[in-house]
Amino acid sequence: VNEKTRQRILQIAEQHGYTPNLTARALSFGRKNIKIGVCIPREIRYFYDQLRSGIFDEARRFEHLGLDVVYRPVRTLGSKASKTISGLLDSGIQALILTPGNPDEAAPLIEVAEKKKNIRVVCVATDDSQSCRSTSISVDPRLNGMMAAELMAKFVQPGAQVAIVTGMLATEDNGKKVAGFSEVFPPESKGSIVQVIEGHEDELETVQKCSRLLRGHPDLAGIYVSTVNCIPVCRAIEAQKRSKQIKVVATDLFAEAVPFFLNGTLAASLYQNPYRQGQTAVRLIVDSILHGAP
User: Do residues 106 and 78 lie in contact, with contact meaning Cβ atoms separated by under 8 Å?
Assistant: First the structure.
């Protein structure tokens, strides 16, 4: 096809919103034996079970290409992951799907993968934006925190005291969500943020810290939970019979949270669609390997 005809075809495709079917395109390549490593946390399962399902369901669509997923999870987002990641990099994978809980730990390994081993690294759920990873798939964390702040400002009275419960501030997603919320809530509500709690994605630690928070702040009107770990927060609130007093803005949706919505403990939640994040990561990797897409 000459260049003029090619450009005309591309123009028509764009006008009609056409996008190629990745599965159909892949059929023309035959069996490629693609090997993808996956290193994501097991806990908190409400989020990571959905993320893992998205990865594996999408991978099954490309089984005819010989796509193989090497799944080596870590226990939590805060778990040491360097040994697990290094093992994956030495296992013959062509790409790595990674949730980098500690950017300082992950960045040197990402550099080894991308620059020395030619392994594409796709960060999911949280990013390591200072590294040389190929791309990242997640919500915009700062915007997410800002939206949560606007919601909270509508739920509580002007001048109200609120708190933030997060996982680890060192994790990029958590840190930027907290920053976004902190930027918007005080001027939006004329209120104050009395405490930021790091629960380290541990349910028992979060319950204990939230219980102390509630005892120390009898006028607390709201809690923003920037991670999926809202269940222990709700339980701590209910244990002190403060459900009607405190508005909780949470993150993500899952079956176990439904009772807390129904009884009013949870006021709102911002959905991150972890299943779609997992699907998208696999699609981008397959497209990159098959077609050299950046």
Answer: no
What is the C-alpha separation between 197 and 208, in angstroms, rounded? 11
Instruction: Return all residues near 162 (Cβ < 8 A) that are at least 6 apart.
Output: 152, 156, 185, 191, 192, 193, 194, 220, 221, 222, 223, 224
Pairing between β-strand 95-98 and β-strand 161-166 as defined by DSSP bridges: unpaired
> What are the structure tokens assigned to 213, written together?
């928070």
> Is there a contact between 92 and 35 (Cβ–Cβ < 8 Å)?
yes
pLDDT in tens, 57-78: 999 999 988 999 999 999 998 8
Q: Which residues contact residue 254 at a Cβ distance below 8 angstroms, ignoring those fewer than 6 apart?
A: 46, 47, 50, 228
| DSSP 8-class letter at 59 | H
Kindly report, residue by residue over 124-174, the tens digit of the pLDDT: 999 999 999 999 999 999 999 999 999 999 999 999 999 999 999 999 999
| CB count in 10 Å sphere of residue 175 | 20
Give the C-alpha separation, 34 to 284, whole Å.
13
The SS3 call for residue 253 is: coil
Beta-bridge partners for 124: 137
Kindly report the pTM of this predicted structure: 0.84
Q: Cis peptide leading into 44, omega within 30 of 0? A: yes
* Selection from 144, 105, 146 nearest residue 125 by Cα: 144
For residue 182, what are its two tokens? 């902190």
- Helix (H/G/I), strand (E/B), else coil: 287: helix
Pairing label, strands 220-225, 95-98: unpaired
